[in-house]
Amino acid sequence: MTDLAIDLAYQVRKNQLWLILTIILLGSCTGYWGYKPLVEFTKNHRKTLIKLFNLPSDIQFPSDSTFRNIIQSLDFEILAVLFNVWAQQKLSIDEGELMAMDGKSLKSTSVGGSSSYQNFVSIVSVYSHKHGWVLRHQVMENKQKSELEVVEELVQELEGKNVVITLDALHCKKKTLALIIKSGNDYIVALKKNQLNLFKAVNKLVSSTLCI
Hints:
Elements: H1 3-14, H2 17-29, H3 35-44, H4 46-52, H5 64-73, H6 76-90, E1 98-105, E2 121-128, E3 133-141, H7 147-157, E4 164-167, H8 174-182, E5 186-189, H9 196-210
Parallel strand pairs: 1-4, 4-5
Antiparallel strand pairs: 1-2, 2-3
Helix pairs in contact: 2-3, 3-5
């Protein structure tokens, strides 16, 4: 067993894993981003946390190094799968509502900073404009999979939901949009000048419509 594994095992025994993960979740949701801010969160809300979770009054909350080691050891893909199972059971999808699909890289997951092509972990999410909650997550590494592929997979998961999927200009592709239509949904997609001919055609159509 490595020194890191031994250290993690000790930290988890000292501070139960469920408590560490709950603090990370609550702190992040209230703007305490980063290892030291999470420590600040436990200081600012110590009495509330002890009362809420029936903790010993003399409890020592995790240090910033504990938060760092736990977060760096997490398997984001497993967390995403667990979230999706929970979301399918608890969160509704209303007919006709707007669903945003977008990918965001996870902080501190970038490697190969000095190379011409970095690798990093991203989470592609499906977000409900109406309810203000995320309905699906899918983890990807940019060297293994593209955001385009992940969005195509998520589109298929929404088959028959009769929703409107909103996308940025990255996904203004024939294959993706055809897949959305085939899934029984509709779309709103951004268009930029990198697709100049299509941009000019749409601009001309909009201009002529406004003149009517």
